[in-house]
Automatic annotation (TrEMBL):
Protein name: Uncharacterized protein
Highest taxon listed in the record's lineage: Eukaryota
The Ionotropic glutamate receptor L-glutamate and glycine-binding domain, residue ranges: 252-353
Primary residence: membrane
Domain named Ionotropic glutamate receptor C-terminal: residues: 378-642
Cellular component GO terms, alphabetical: plasma membrane
Keyword Repressor: no
Signal peptide: 1-22
InterPro entries (alphabetical): Glu/Gly-bd, Insect_Ionotropic_Sensory_Rcpt, Iontro_rcpt_C
Length: 669
C-alpha cells in the first residue's frame, strides 16, 4: 500500500467531513494553472498544531514558522510569487507543518503545487519541467532523498535527461541540523544552479540564517547573506545576487591547442616547449570574456593526438570535449563546431564565427612530357593523318603505274612514294617533281593539305610546349570519391559524414582513417596518397605556410566543401556560465570585433612567411622561359625511335644482301 494512496484516501475523508472545503478555496488544491501535475499531493494529518492553537510553541516549531515567514517575504520581494511554484516537502511532521503554513500564506497567489519529497516525485520528468520562471521551495528535515537526487541525477549518470531544473530559483529550508548548508551547496546539481538560497532556522527559534552558495570556485563555502529576525531581514542584501556577472578573479580552466588560425601559439625563442602567448579569434574571445566577467584563465593543454576528442571503446571521452565533459576544464575553445553529436557531452555558447569543412588533396601533377608532341592533335586527327599517309603512298604508286607519261625512275619504288608523301605532308622541299598532269594535280592537292596540317600542328605545338600540362584536379566530392585517394581526418568527421544527405559524402564514412597525426597526414597528402579533411581556414593557412614552393602549392583545397558550421565555445553541460557569456559574445560579434581579430591573425601569419614569399614572387610571373629538356623530351624519343628503326632496317638489309651475294657467287661457280 503506497503512501500516496493512503494520502488520497485521507483527502477524500477530509473532504466529506468538512463540506466547507468544497466552497472555500483550498490552498492545497489550487488548480489555477493547467499544467499543475496530477500526482501525490500532500495533505496534513489533523493532529498537527494549527496556527490558532494557544499552547506555547517549542523553539523548533517557532524556528520553522519564522522560516516560512522569511520564505514568503523573499518570494514577495523578488516578485517570484507569480512564477510556477513547486513546494517539495519531506514526509515528516515538522516539514508537513511548514508546507501547510506556506500553502496558507501563498494561497492568494498564482497556482502552485505541493508534492511530497520522495523518489517517485523526484524521478518524474514533469516535476522538473521548465517554464519561463520556476521556483522550487524544498522543505528538508533529514534530506536523505533530496541529497541523493541532487547529487546524482545529472548528465554524467544519465545521458538522456538530467532530472533537474537548472534555471529555476531554489529555496532550501533546512529545518533541523541533519544537513548543513555547506553539504547542500556542494551537491552536484546545486553547484550548477545559479539561484539557490538556503534558509536555516537558528536553534534559538528567533532567527533564520540565509545562506547563498558560491559557484566559482566550486570548493568555496556558502556565504551568510542575511538573517531574519523579528519579522525583518537585518542587512537588506540582494537575495539572488548575480554572482557570475563578476567572478572576482576566480579561475576558469580553458582547454585548447595550437590550431592556426583559430588558436596560434607563440613559443619562446630559447625554449621551444614554452608557450609565451596565444593568438587567434578563439583566444581573443576567451580573453575578452575574462575581462568582462572578471575571471582568471588557466589553460589546460589538449594533446595533439586527441584534438577535439572522441569516445574510446570503453566510453571514456578524451580531447577537448573530454576535458570539458569530465569537468577538468570549464571552457573548451578551439574552433569548436556547433553540431548535435557532441552536444550530448557539452553545451555550446552562442556562435561567434563560421567555417566550412573542406578536403585538401594533392595538387594536379604535370603530365609526362614525352607525350607533348602528340598533344596538338586529338587522337581522331592523328588517325586521319595516318590513314591519309597510308593511302597516299599507295595511290601515288598506282597513279604513276597507270599514267601514260614517263615519270622519274624513283617513283616506281613504293618506299620512295611513301617518303614523297611524308615529305609533302610535312612540307619538305622535294627535288623531284611529277611530270604527268594526273600525278601533278594529285600532288598539288596533297601539298596544299600538308601546308595546312603542318601550320596547325606547329602553332599548336608551341602553345603546348610553353605551358605545363596538368592532370585533372580534384574539384568535387564526386571526383574525390572516384580518385582512389585514401581519406584521413579527425574522428569527428565520421559522425558528420554519416549524417550527410549526400550519398557520396556518406560513402566516406568507411573510408575515413582517423588514427593519424594531422601533421604527418599533410605529408601523405603531398605524396599523393591521401586527402585530408579539416576546417577551411586551417587548411588554407597550412597550405600557404608549409606546402607552397616557387609560387606553386603541392597540395590544394578541394573547392567543393561540406556545409557551413557555426563556431562557439564548448561549456560544461548545463553550465551556469552560458547565460552570462552569451550576451558578451553576441556583443563582440555585432561590434565587428571577431572579423577584425580574424584579419589580424591572418596578417600575423602572413608576416611570419613574408620573407620566404617575396623571393618566390620574384621567381614567378609571366616571364618567357626557355623550353626545358623535360618539355622537349618527346622529340628526342622520336629521334631515338628513328635511329632504332633505321638500324633495324640496316641490319635486315645487310642480312638480305649477304644472302643475295652468296647465291650470286654460288651461281658463278
Ligand atoms: C518540539 O516539538 C516537536 C513536535 O511536537 C518535537 O518533535 C520536538 O522534539 C520538540 N522540540 C523541542 C526542542 O522540544
Ligand atoms: C556527491 O557526489 C560526490 C561524487 O559524485 C561525492 O564525492 C560526494 O560525497 C557526494 N556528496 C554527498 C553529500 O553525498
Ligand atoms: C576583479 O576581481 C578582482 C579580484 O577579486 C578584484 O580585485 C577587482 O576589483 C575585480 N574587478 C572588477 C572590475 O570588479
Ligand atoms: C578507458 O580506457 C583508457 C585507455 O584505454 C583508460 O585510460 C581509461 O581509464 C578507461 N576508462 C574506463 C572507465 O575504464
Amino acid at each position: 500500500m503506497t503512501v500516496g494512496l493512503m494520502m488520497r484516501v485521507l483527502v477524500v475523508v477530509l473532504w466529506q467531513v468538512y463540506p466547507a472545503y468544497l466552497v472555500s478555496p483550498n490552498p492545497l488544491y489550487h488548480h489555477q494553472h493547467q499544467h499543475v501535475t496530477q500526482g501525490v499531493m500532500m495533505s496534513l494529518p489533523p493532529s498537527l498544531p494549527s496556527t490558532t492553537t494557544t499552547e506555547p510553541l517549542n523553539t523548533t516549531i517557532k524556528g520553522a514558522r519564522s522560516a516560512v515567514k522569511a520564505t514568503t517575504n523573499i518570494l514577495a520581494t523578488e516578485h517570484l510569487t507569480d512564477c510556477h511554484l513547486t513546494i517539495l516537502t519531506e514526509q515528516h511532521p515538522l516539514a508537513t507543518l511548514v508546507a501547510w503554513d506556506l500553502s496558507s500564506a501563498l494561497h492568494a497567489h498564482q497556482g502552485f503545487t505541493v508534492q511530497s519529497l520522495d523518489e517517485e516525485v523526484l524521478e518524474r520528468e514533469s516535476t522538473w519541467r521548465r517554464s519561463v520562471c520556476d521556483v522550487y521551495v524544498i522543505v528538508v528535515v533529514t534530506g536523505t532523498e533530496f541529497v541523493q537526487h541532487a547529487n546524482h541525477s545529472h548528465y554524467h549518470t544519465s545521458l538522456t535527461h538530467a532530472l533537474w531544473n537548472y534555471h529555476a530559483h531554489y529555496l532550501l529550508l533546512l529545518l533541523e541540523a541533519y544537513v548543513e548548508p555547506s553539504d547542500m551547496a556542494r551537491l552536484y546539481n546545486l553547484a550548477k544552479t545559479e539561484s539557490v538560497l538556503i534558509l536555516q532556522p537558528h536553534k534559538d527559534g528567533q532567527q533564520v540564517l540565509l545562506w547563498s552558495h558560491t559557484l566559482y570556485p566550486p570548493t568555496a563555502a556558502p556565504t551568510l547573506l542575511d538573517s531574519w529576525r523579528s519579522d525583518n531581514f537585518q542587512r537588506g542584501n540582494k537575495f539572488f545576487p548575480s554572482q557570475l556577472d563578476n567572478l572576482h578573479g576566480a579561475v576558469l580552466t580553458v582547454a585548447t591547442f595550437h590550431h592556426p588560425p583559430s588558436v596560434v601559439y607563440i613559443h619562446d625563442d630559447q625554449h621551444e616547449e614554452l608557450v609565451t602567448g596565444r593568438l587567434g579569434v578563439d583566444m581573443q574571445i576567451v580573453q575578452t570574456l575574462s575581462q568582462a566577467l572578471n575571471f582568471t584563465i588557466e589553460f589546460a593543454e589538449v594533446s595533439h593526438d586527441e584534438l577535439w576528442g572522441y569516445e574510446l571503446p570503453n566510453g571514456t571521452w578524451v580531447g577537448l570535449v573530454g576535458k570539458v565533459y569530465n569537468e577538468v576544464a570549464d571552457i573548451g575553445a578551439c574552433n569548436v563546431f556547433l553540431e548535435m553529436h557532441r552536444w550530448k557531452q557539452v553545451d555550446y555558447s552562442a556562435p561567434y564565427n563560421f567555417e566550412h569543412g573542406c578536403f585538401v588533396a594533392p595538387s594536379p601533377k604535370p603530365l609526362l612530357n614525352w607525350q607533348s608532341p602528340a598533344f596538338p592533335f586529338s587522337w581522331d586527327t592523328w588517325v586521319s593523318v595516318g590513314v591519309c599517309l597510308l593511302l597516299g603512298g599507295v595511290i601515288l604508286r598506282v597513279l604513276v603505274a597507270l599514267s601514260c607519261g614517263a615519270e622519274p625512275r624513283e617513283f616506281t619504288s613504293l618506299s620512295y612514294s611513301y617518303l614523297y608523301m611524308l615529305g609533302s605532308l610535312s612540307t619538305q622541299p622535294m627535288e623531284l617533281a611529277p611530270r604527268t598532269l594526273s600525278v601533278r594535280v594529285y600532288m598539288g592537292m596533297m601539298w596544299l593539305a600538308g601546308l595546312i596540317l603542318t601550320t596547325a600542328y606547329a602553332a599548336n605545338l608551341v602553345a603546348f610546349l610553353s605551358v605545363t600540362l596538368m592532370s585533372q584536379p580534384v574539384d568535387t566530392m564526386q571526383q574525390l570519391a572516384m580518385s582512389g585517394l585514401q581519406l584521413g581526418g579527425h574522428a569527428f568527421w565520421t559522425t558528420q559524414f554519416a549524417a550527410s544527405i549526400d550519398s557520396t559524402v556518406r560513402s566516406f564514412v568507411n573510408r575515413l582513417e582517423t588514427e593519424i597525426d594531422l601533421n604527418a597526414l599533410f605529408d601523405l597528402v603531398e605524396d599523393g596518397h591521401f586527402a585530408l579533411i579539416e576546417n577551411e581556414q586551417y587548411l588554407e593557412v597550412t597550405v600557404g605556410a608549409r606546402y607552397t614552393q616557387g609560387g606553386r602549392a603541392t597540395i590544394r583545397v578541394v573547392p567543393e566543401c561540406l556545409p557551413t558550421y557555426s563556431i562557439g565555445l564548448a561549456l560544461q553541460k548545463n553550465s551556469p556560465l552560458k547565460t552570462h557569456l552569451d550576451p558578451v559574445i553576441l556583443r563582440l560579434v555585432e561590434g565587428g570585433l571577431v572579423l577584425k581579430w580574424r584579419g589580424e591573425v591572418l596578417d600575423y601569419f602572413k608576416s611570419l612567411y613574408a620573407g620566404t614569399r617575396t623571393s618566390r614572387v620574384a621567381n614567378e610571373g609571366f616571364v618567357t622561359r626557355p623550353l626545358t629538356l623535360n618539355q622537349l623530351q618527346g622529340v628526342f624519343y622520336m629521334l631515338v625511335l628513328g635511329y632504332l628503326g633505321a638500324a633495324a632496317f640496316l641490319s635486315l638489309e645487310l642480312v638480305l644482301y649477304s644472302r643475295h651475294t652468296n647465291s650470286l657467287s654460288h651461281h658463278v661457280h
